[in-house]
Automatic annotation (TrEMBL):
Its main location: secreted. It is found in: Secreted. Residues 1-21 form the signal peptide. Secretory protein that plays a role in various cellular processes. Acts as a chemorepellent acting on gonadotropin-releasing hormone (GnRH) expressing neurons regulating their migration to the hypothalamus. Also promotes neuron migration, growth and survival as well as neurite outgrowth and is involved in the development of the olfactory system. May also act through the regulation of growth factors activity and downstream signaling. Also regulates extracellular matrix assembly and cell adhesiveness. The gene is Ndnf_1. It comes from Fregata magnificens (Magnificent frigatebird). GO terms for biological process: nervous system development. This is Protein NDNF. One of its GO terms (molecular function) is heparin binding. Pfam families: NDNF, NDNF_C, NDNF_N. GO terms for cellular component: extracellular region. Keywords: Glycoprotein, Neurogenesis, Repeat, Secreted, Signal. Residues 232-329 form the Fibronectin type-III domain.
Length: 559
């Protein structure tokens, strides 16, 4: 009989031998079966599993080959191969060794550099390329063979090391591993606001058939669209973050990395990955096909990708991504500051908007004074467009700045909490009479546990080198009121906001030696086992008070 030889070159790291050569007589089913058995025994790691998604790692410029065999036994043997690049574009081909001319194949979802070859070969054994592709899109090849054949898949990455997933199936009757996309897989933008974008898309047929096992997941970022969930996860990992395996958005519990924030509300899971290159937000919303993305930045371009995910297999299919730019926020109204005038500003914590104040200098040296009344406030001061102050403030804060006459200062204030905050602001030249009194090193009130009795407590506080007036007030409170009283205290309000019955005393004192500038006071006439809130107000030359930090003390039950 006439002999024919064929040789497939295998990766060198698998065996010392560089190639596997087989001698086959005029091709028969038994010879092909023998070849398959030997190949499986010695090179089983190269056999592509049927009905299972396989992850393949590629090294730059080193081709990798996988094999599969179509068995004889059916009139026509259909098969499907889906390749998903998870990073850079790759090249991949399908080669077939066959002994018959009966072969039919077609590319199902190709759009980049695809080529289909269907040749009738009369030679007893021939290797031919039936399909090749180059790109980073998810590509599916659907083929059908009427005789037993050995197939080889060759993969190559020319840009860098990467990985891909490959899915081979010869069973086209048991459903799809990947969820189906609708005939029109585009995402439509139906609404754009300052901080929101509303999206809608057509339902996947898989959602309509298997609603309990399918969900939609949305990925939002500021860089570009992703053609697969695999590519999106790879990009996030490359920025230094770690994601849960395969389906980063499944509702099963897992531990998040420090750079990740998870938000679960109204049956929606949101994961925010805070990377140095920007924020990547992932949201799973069940089977809803309309979603409004909240908490975006104004005047910013965002890219949106929707993936339909099979929760049983973790396989996903990507809709055609889209992008939109949020509406630019109008410039906030700017209020003019005048020398020596005090302005109190209330900041909306929910809207997180800036409140702007402007001042044109009439002196070279000026001083900004901020007294935090409630909440937490971030201060940003620019001089002629350049930042000179940027920090969060607490209590009383002074900023002394130098410049030129007619320099323009812009003060922007924002609450750093979700609740409202308020702050008093004053700007004045250095020689201007100070609004607030000279402050001690600490505004804390100290109580002495050993000096507590059933009807009295002793408190102490620091003073200054200036003779000043100090007024003490007390208020009886319940256990469940402590947190709210301390939280809601208005540190800008003076004794005028207090009931007359709460006043204990007023006194003057000072000491040139700051080490001795301490005063104590014993408050008597209290009830046993009772909580009291104590406040001290300091008055300076201008009469504007500064409130010390409130102190809660409980009298003894038994004496």
């Amino acid at each position: 009989l006439k002999m024919s030889w064929f040789c497939f070159y295998l990766p060198l790291h698998l065996l010392m031998a560089a190639c596997l050569c087989y001698s086959i007589k005029a091709p028969t089913t038994s010879s092909l079966q023998s070849f398959k058995t030997d190949l499986f025994n010695f090179y089983h790691s190269l056999i592509l599993a049927d009905g299972k998604e396989t992850t393949i790692h590629l090294l730059k410029d080193i081709p990798k080959r996988y094999y599969f065999v179509l068995e004889e036994g059916r009139a026509l043997a259909p098969f499907t191969i889906t390749v998903t690049p998870c990073d850079v574009p790759i090249e991949w081909s399908i080669l077939v060794h066959k002994a018959s001319a009966s072969f039919l194949g077609k590319a199902a979802r190709g759009d980049h550099d695809t080529q289909e070859v269907s040749k009738s070969q009369t030679a007893p054994s021939m290797v031919s390329t039936i399909f090749n592709y180059k790109g980073n899109s998810v590509e599916t090849y659907m083929g059908m063979s009427s005789h037993s054949a050995l197939y080889m898949l060759e993969f190559l990455s020319t840009e860098r090391d990467t990985h891909i997933t490959v899915y081979l199936t010869t069973d086209t009757t048991s459903g799809h591993l990947y969820p189906e996309l609708p005939m029109d897989p585009r995402i439509d933008v139906i609404g754009i606001g300052h901080t929101t974008v509303t999206l809608t898309w057509k339902h996947s047929p898989s959602v309509l058939q298997h609603r309990e096992n399918i969900q939609y997941c949305l990925l939002v970022n500021e860089k570009h669209n992703y053609k697969s969930l695999c590519a999106a996860e790879t990009a996030i990992r490359s920025s230094g973050l770690k994601l849960p395996p395969t389906l980063a958005l499944s509702l099963s519990p897992y531990l998040l990395e420090p750079q990740q924030v998870m938000i679960l509300s109204n049956s929606e899971l949101s994961i925010i990955n805070k990377a140095s290159t920007g924020e990547v937000r992932q949201i799973c919303m069940g089977t809803k096909n309309t979603y409004t993305v909240p908490n975006l930045s104004p005047s910013t371009q965002y890219y949106f990708d929707v993936f339909v995910v099979n929760l049983l297999t973790n396989a996903s299919a990507a809709y055609t991504g889209t992008f939109a730019r949020t509406v630019e926020e109008p410039e906030p109204k700017v209020m003019e500051l005048k020398d020596g005038k005090v302005v109190q500003v209330v900041l909306d914590g929910k809207k997180q908007k800036f409140y702007s104040l402007q001042y044109q200098a009439r002196h070279k040296k000026i001083q900004f004074t901020f007294q935090l009344c409630h909440g937490q406030v971030r201060v940003h001061i620019t001089k002629n467009g350049k930042t000179v102050v940027l920090e969060n403030i607490s209590g009383l804060r002074y900023f002394s700045l130098k410049g030129k006459l007619l320099d323009t200062y812009l003060v922007q204030l924002r609450s750093t909490e979700e609740s409202n905050s308020s702050v008093k602001v004053q700007v004045s030249p250095h020689f201007h009479k100070p609004l607030f009194p000279l402050l001690p090193e600490s505004l804390k009130i100290k109580s002495f546990s050993k000096l507590r009795t059933c009807n009295s407590v002793t408190i102490a506080w620091l003073g200054t080198q200036d003779e000043s007036k100090y007024c003490v007030y007390k208020k009886r409170i319940e256990e469940d009121q402590v947190w709210m009283e301390l939280r809601s205290a208005d540190r800008c309000s003076g004794p005028e906001s207090r009931h007359k019955s709460e006043k204990v005393l007023c006194k003057y004192f000072y000491d040139i030696n700051l080490q001795r500038a301490v005063t104590t006071e014993t408050i008597k006439g209290l009830d046993a086992g009772t909580l009291y809130l104590f406040d001290v107000y300091l008055f300076g030359p201008s009469g504007t008070p500064v409130r010390y930090h409130s102190k809660v003390v409980k009298t003894r039950k038994k004496c």
